[in-house]
Amino acid sequence: MDIFNAILILLAGCGVFIAGMNMLSDGLEHSAGGGMKKLLGKISNNRFAGVGIGAAVTGIIQSSSATSVMVIGLVNAGVMTLTQATAIIMGANIGTTVTGILVSLKSLNISLYMTLLAFIGVMMTFFKKERIKQIGGILCGLGLIFVGLDLMSSAFGGSGLEQFFQEKVFSNIKFPLLLIFCGMAFTALIQSSSAATGLFIVMVGAGALELESALFLVLGSNIGTCITAVLAALGTGVNAKRAALIHLTFNVIGTILFTIFLWIFTDPIIKLFDKILPGNPQMQLAWFHVIFNVTTTIILLPFVKQLVQFASIVIQEKKAEETPARHLKYVDERLLKAPSIAVMQVKKEIECMADTVRNNLEKSFEALRLQSDKYGAELYENEEMIDFTNNAVNKYLIRLSALVDTKDEKKIGAYFHVLNDLERIGDHAENFYEIGTQMKKQDLVFSETAISEIQEMQNKVLRMFEIAEEAFDNMKTDRLSELTALENEVDGMKRSLSANHVARLSEGTCKVELSAYFFSTVSGLERVADHLVNVGYSILNPTGSQSIAKQEGSL
């Protein structure tokens, strides 16, 4: 086998390795999506907790770059502070070392058994049960990682490729800073420090790369992996850019410290590794990667505030730059890299939209009662925000629906319907306000009896809003029966109030010009009640149908 063919096999193996990593990452993320939500739900200002969360999430999704991009998305959405993000980024660097340890297991001659997992995993994906499919995806990804490693190793078997790298490549770039730059450039090119480290481990095991050179290449790869976060920060807010800078600064400082130490004590360090893990350079390199990230985190963890201050000085707020008038508060497209987290953030965005809708509904009731245009500007501004959120989140959900598992698909189906129901309630709130302004222009006023009846109906609708919002926010079904009972009362009130109005017309105690406004008001309130029932019952059934919901379990 000539060198050209060997390089092709090496590249093919690298491709299979990366594909296996992505499959393993997807399988773990879907399988442990609920766990990731719980982890991120426990985000606090405790640095140690942040490091633990970052390490755990990265261990799940097998990519520090993906974790960093997700963190940048959360910072950009205003969900996470820079201090919290810094600790999580530090933890992500520790979590990514799991891949290196996994790759180094190849030195234990277990590759044949591990590659069989690819076949077993593929067979499991044919099952109908979602959980078995997820496990199959994980096993298949794990197996493909070792298939890729075997392919890469075979490229060095008798092809002279190891001699080519030794004599033609690394013999000319033994200078530590040049090796660091090469590791940085290569990792930035493939945008995966795990894949780069995996390749370096294979090359060390094949004798194509000396451990001394590999140590500096790994240091460079830790800087190169930051390119993904830097690219993700483009076009984001100031704090998101600062988070990317902190990620880069953290790795640069760690690399500088370790480069100085390695440069001075290269021989003693190599001898120490040989003593601890004799004859196993793959394991030696993998554990060096672990030591680098753990030590850097221990050194810099006390200086989180200083890192944040440094980033704030370098990237300052621009006075001329104003936040767009309309933007989503919790949703960020970068979170699509972690679909289960994106689903959680969509729910928060819908909850925020519901608060705006309820505010408009309350203001419109008050405006109708007083026949005042006091709240007009606020109502119309909120209505535009409601429409914007509805359109933007719907588009986001369309993209997200292609990335989630079956359980989250049901949630997304429910979210589509809830968004529509909330948007329609917002439209009715605007109509109530306009009814009041039109009556004021025509100098028309409801009778005291009519006002009292409408207020009673409005109060029931607001109680329904409270119950529906509580059910959706907390995913609790204990008050849904109360929601249904109130809707029945509202339906009954529509009929009785309409009959009472007709009676007042017959008695001459009410003007006929008020009929259109009165009937529009009570009909609108009854429709709002219908939409609120849909919102409440969406936690049982995506369409909000009560009859179907009674037969199904909670989302």
In short, what is this structure?
With 555 residues, the chain is mainly α. It folds into two domains: 3-157 and 165-314, no CATH class; 338-549, Up-down Bundle (Methane Monooxygenase Hydroxylase, Chain G, domain 1), CATH 1.20.58.220. Helix content is 78%, strand content 0%.
Provide an overview of this structure.
This protein has 555 residues and is mainly alpha-helical. Helix 4 (64-76) runs antiparallel to helix 14, helix 11 (193-206) packs antiparallel against helix 12 (211-224) and helix 12 (211-224) crosses helix 16. Residues 547-555 have low confidence and may be disordered. It folds into 2 domains: 3-157 and 165-314, no CATH class; 338-549, Phosphate transport system protein phou homolog 2, domain 2 (Methane Monooxygenase Hydroxylase, Chain G, domain 1, Up-down Bundle), CATH 1.20.58.220. It contains 24 helices and no strands.
What fraction of residues sit in β-strands? Answer: under 5%
- Principal-axis shape equals elongated
Largest pleated sheet: none
Number of helices: 24
Distance between the termini: 57 Å
Taken in chain order, the helices and strands follow as: HHHHHHHHHHHHHHHHHHHHHHHH
- The protein's oligomeric status is single chain
Strand pairing plus helix content: what structural class? mainly alpha
Number of strands: 0
Helix fraction bin: over 70%
Radius of gyration: 31 Å
- Low-confidence runs of at least 5 consecutive residues: 547-555
The domain tally reads 2
Mean pLDDT: 84
